Amino acid sequence: MKLMICVLIMLISAKECDKENAQLATQDTTTEGNNTTVMSQKSMQIDRKITYQAVSRGFFLNVTVQGDSISFSNERDMKSVTTYKIPKEEKEELVSLISSMEETTLPDLKAPSKKHQFDGAAIATVEVENGENSYKTVAFDHGTPPESIKPIVEKMLSIKTMIEKQ
Q1: What share of the chain is helix, strand, coil (3-state, %, to 5)?
Q2: H/E stretch holding 85
Q3: 114 and 123 in contact (C-beta within 8 Å)?
Q4: Element (H, E) at 25
Q5: Are 127 and 99 in contact (CB under 8 A)?
């Protein structure tokens, strides 16, 4: 009897997975002016885990973007992590910014200022996890990221601020 129930559950699960794969395979067409852009729903996923972290003696901020969600916490122990779904318009812009980023160059970026070295600003870093690889920037001042990642950091922080105001 248990065996029959297990087989039945496996068949139902397999059928549901097929439905989800079929939905992911369908393409979404958006039109801007005369240009027609065809994107699959899967390409709109953020396939990397991007973490922005800023720390000082009295300040902590961790913002993580992965998949369709953004998580953030102001506590060092990360006991209270708030997770939200990223709005579609914001996600599209963030995906385009992330896709233009070359994560292998992150460790070589130079900090534009050094206030974090003498408590003039919180120490910030950006870490990108892509499958089994992880790339992390050198420390830079919170609020003054290196130019090549500045749009991504500003977008992540603006999404966080927008969500907090809602």
Answers
A1: 40, 35, 25
A2: strand 82-85
A3: no
A4: helix 2-25
A5: no
Question: Which of 51, 65, 82 is CA-nearest to residue 73?
Answer: 82
Residue type, 113: S
DSSP state of 144: B
Chain segment 127-153, per-residue pLDDT in tens = 999 888 999 999 999 989 999 999 999
Q: pLDDT tens, 105-132?
A: 999 998 888 888 787 889 999 999 988 8
Write the single-letter amino acid at 97.
L
- Residue 40 CA from chain centroid, whole number: 19
Asked if residues 62 and 52 have their Cβ atoms less than 8 Å apart, the reply is: yes
